[in-house]
Every structure is written in C-alpha cells, then in structure tokens.
Design a protein that fits this description.
Length: 485
C-alpha cells in the first residue's frame, strides 16, 4: 500500500514554503536598502510615506527603461559605426611596394607544350589515323579552363571509341598529367628584371594550381611566406629605383597583377595582359592604392567590419591565406562536390583528400550541371542569403590595383620570345586606412556609462549583487546554525 499523506503533512509543507518566501522577501528588502544602486534604498525604506516609495519606484522603472532603449539603439547602430575607412595622404618619398604578379600558362590556337602533344599523340589517332585534335581540345578544356566553352567537353571526349585505334581522353589522373606533361617554370619564363636588376625567375615565381590553370606566382601568400628565400624584396626606394618589372616568356601566357592573398580566377579580371603571338611585346602601367588596418580592427567581429584578414582562414580551407577569390573558389568546389561527388583538381591545389578530384566521368557530370565554370552564378548569388549564396567577404588587405595605360602590342619577327613591362609611373601619394571606431573597450565604457548615468551602477554594483545572493545568505545560515548549537 502507498504511504498516506494527511492534512498535517500539507500544512507543514505550506508553512515551510511560506517561511522560505518571506525569508527571500526580507533578504531582497535588505539588499535594496543597502545596495549602491540609486533609488532602491528609498523604495525599501518602510519609514517613508507610500507615495514617496511609489515615486521612487516610478523613477527607477523610467530610468531602467531609458537605459534599455539606449543600449538597444547602441547595439543596433554598432555594425554600421564600428569601423570606418578614411583616405589619407602618404608622406613624401615613401617607398614603393610592388604588388604580386602571376604568370599563367595558356594556349593559343591549341598550340601546346611539345611533351604534352607527344602524350596526346600516344593515346591513339583519329578516324584517319592522324593526330587526335578532338582529344587535344577536350583535354585542354580540363587543363586550361579559359579555353572551355559550354558543352564542348562532351563533344570532344566521348566515352566510346569511334574505331579500334581511335584515341580517347584520359579517364582520370589529370593532376598528374599536368604535372608530368605541362610546362614548368623554365619552359615559361626566360628572364626577369625588377627596377633593371635581373633575378632568378624560377626561384621567386612559385607554381600554384588555380581556377585559371597552373600559374607561377611572385610573392603570393598562397605558396610563399614573407622573409623566405623564395620571397622577393619589392620595397623600392624612389630616389634611385623605378617600380618596373620586365618579363620575357617563351610561350603564350596570361599575366595578372594582384594582391598578395589573391589567386587568378576565371570569374575576375584583375589588371593584366595576354601574350599569345611569338615576338609580341606589351607595356602596361598600373596604379596601386594600398589599404592598411589599425591594430584595433582585428578585435571587431568580421561580420561587423565586413572583411576577413588573410590569417582568418576557415578550417575547411585548402589555401594558406583568406581572400575573396579563394572563398569563391572553395564555394564553387563545394557546389561541385554536392552535385557530382567530386571537384576539379584545379580547385584543390594541395590535393586534400577531403575533396576528391574528378575523373572524366566527373567532369562530364560537372558539364551536364553547368558547373565547369559557375562563375557568374556564384558572383550573382554571393550575398543573397539563399542556398546558392557563398557569403564571401572581401579581404581586409584588399587594395585597389588599376591599369591606367596599356600600350599597343609590338612585334619582333626576329624572335619567338614574348615580353611584357609592368610599371608604376607615379609615386603613390594616398592610401586607405581602416579604423576601429568602437572596440571592445569602447563597448564596455559606453555600456558602463549608460548604466551609471541612469542607475548609478558600476562594477562594484555587480559584485555587490552576487555577494548579497550568494555569500550573504550562506553566512546568515551559518550564524543561525551556530546560535542554535
């Protein structure tokens, strides 16, 4: 049988709860009477007339409401007023800082490196037994993305042979094919000069797989580190040095001028020049406006400052440094994997096993889903907030580089080499500066000022509140117990 609960048990329980309630009320009244918050002592003072206590209660409520409204307004305005960007003048005769440069292998009229042509020829012939140009075009669209046209891969890389000896596109290992048969640095670059001083091209131009293809990068944070033996010192003294980079190439290339954390991408068109014809020469002049950040900017949340520093890379990234171009690339890779279970090897420069490379079947799947080059789709939906949105923020170090002059091509029929000169004709006179207007310390000071203005609160008030509802009841209980002993 269950235990019978009589009326005496209910009575004792109700009396116990009543005692606890009135003990809490007494303790709360004691806190209000002795705390340092303005007005609470008047509310708890039973010797005052009730009209006075009601008056002070109304004052405390109105002050609390006013403080709440100000704090809410402060938090709402914080994202739009936490950071500002100003345009400031540089001191005269400040040093030049030449930007990063990429030299990307490209093909013109499907003229490939000889060893790559030999590899394609070893795969077989066409219906007439001649060189398989269709296979060359299909493989080129995979290895050199700028040559891709919508629907071209399926037509040039069939999965069934047209004849017993006809060539087929390789089924996979495209990363290894580009490494084995693609052009290396010495195949591309012949001579390099900065401010008239020659330097070792292949020591400082480091290879990197990018969405544009395989490129050789000068002073890129993606495959190099400042201060390393492969990092070229590009700080130039305008008193005796010119900001002029001269390059001589042995084959068709696309050259880009970009920020150190950026990578060449088919979706963007940074200042640069395309050199395709033998003997072609080109001059391009650029202007660079750098952006610098105050140390306090890093304390502001990225969503509030609306940018990310190069070292704020997400754990899922395969790149060394964050930039808008790497973020868009990783977003494209994610979409490709979701659709076809693989991604282009050019979007995984480190061969990270988390992101499998596509074989030929995978590339045909990407083409069927219009994901070989989803550039316009990604940029259009970047900040729309839908499922296709990448949500990529710009880099905090993303300076403004513009081409201010591009000369007509010159041609020297006595040589097969191409040359380009990239110069900065004018000394930089201005720069952008990102400043933190409201840091964490400013938040503490502002919040403390509002609480102090309306309620007379301080850090000691918070400690006092904790003390009255933790330490004080414990000591009272211990005193009562020792008094009964």
């Amino acid at each position: 049988m269950g235990r019978t609960i009589d009326a005496d048990d209910y009575g004792r329980r109700e009396r116990g709860l009543s005692v606890l309630f009135w003990q809490f009320v007494t303790h709360l009244k004691d806190y209000c009477a002795n705390c340092t918050l303005s007005g609470f002592a008047y509310i708890a003072n039973s010797r005052l007339h009730y009209t006075e206590r009601v008056f002070w209660l109304a004052c405390v409520v109105i002050s609390s409401l006013g403080c709440y409204i100000l704090i809410v307004d402060y938090q709402r305005d914080f994202p739009s007023r936490a950071v500002s960007i100003v345009y400031e003048s540089l001191p005269p005769f400040s040093t030049w800082k030449f930007p990063s440069v990429s030299v990307c292998e490209c093909i013109h009229k499907y003229i490939l490196v000889k060893k790559l042509e030999q590899y394609i020829g070893s795969l077989g012939g066409d219906l007439d037994g001649d060189y398989p140009y269709d296979v060359e075009v299909g493989l080129s669209t995979i290895l050199f993305p700028p040559t891709y046209n919508e629907g071209s891969l399926k037509g040039t890389c069939p999965t069934v042979r047209k004849c017993p000896t006809c060539a087929l596109c390789p089924n996979g290992n495209f990363r290894q094919i580009l490494n084995w048969y693609g052009a290396n640095c010495s195949d591309v670059l012949v001579e390099c000069k900065l401010s008239g001083q020659a330097f070792d091209c292949c020591r400082y131009f480091r290879p990197l797989l990018t969405p544009f293809g395989r490129c050789f990068m000068l002073n890129s944070l993606q495959n190099n580190n400042p201060g390393s033996k492969h990092w070229l010192n590009t700080d130039l003294d305008p008193a005796y040095q010119e900001a002029r980079l001269e390059l001589i190439m042995n084959m068709a290339v696309q050259i880009h001028v970009l920020n150190a954390e950026d990578i060449p991408h088919t979706a963007f068109v940074p200042p640069g020049v395309l050199l395709t014809m033998p003997g072609q020469g080109k001059l391009i002049q650029i202007n660079q406006v750098r952006i610098v950040n105050d140390p306090d900017v890093k304390e502001v949340e990225p969503k509030i400052r609306s940018c990310l520093f190069p070292d704020e890379n997400p754990p899922s990234s395969v790149y060394r440094a964050y930039s808008f171009s790497t973020c868009i690339t990783e977003c494209a890779r994610k979409i490709q994997i979701e659709a076809c279970g693989c991604a282009s090897f050019l979007m995984n420069p480190t061969a990270d096993p988390r992101y499998p490379d596509c074989n030929l079947e995978g590339f045909l799947c990407l083409e069927a889903n219009s994901l070989m080059k989803p550039d316009s789709k990604l940029l259009k939906n970047n900040n729309k907030g839908n499922k296709d949105s990448c949500g990529c923020l710009p880099s905090c170090n993303d300076g403004d580089i513009q081409a201010i002059y591009e000369g007509h091509s010159t041609f020297n029929r006595n040589t097969q080499l191409r040359n380009v000169t990239i110069s900065m004709p004018a000394l930089p006179t201005d720069q952008f500066r990102r400043q933190a207007i409201r840091t964490r310390l400013d938040v503490v000071v502002s919040m403390g000022g509002m609480l102090g203005l309306f309620l007379g609160a301080s850090i000691l008030s918070a400690i006092e509140f904790v003390y009255y509802f933790t330490v004080r009841p414990l000591t009272n209980m211990l005193r009562a117990r020792s008094a009964r002993a």
